[in-house]
Amino acid sequence: MLKIAVLLFYKLMLAGFLCESHDYMRDGKKKLTTSQLKKLQEKTFYGKEKKSLAYIIGIMNMILHGIEAPNIIHTNTLTENLADIQERDRFDIILANPPFGGKERKEVQQNFPIKTGETAFLFLQHFIKKLKAGGRAAVVIKNTFLSNSDNAAKALRQELLESCNLHTVLDLPSGVFVSGVRTVVLFFEKGAPTRKTWFYQLHPGRNLGKTTGWIHRLGLINRGIQMLSGCTYQRIDDAGLHLLVGDAPRLLEVDNVILCAGQEPLKELSRGLHKPFHLIGGADVAVELDAMRAIDQGTRLAAAL
Question: Among 107, 191, 177, which residue's Cα sits nearest to residue 142?
Answer without folding.
Answer: 177
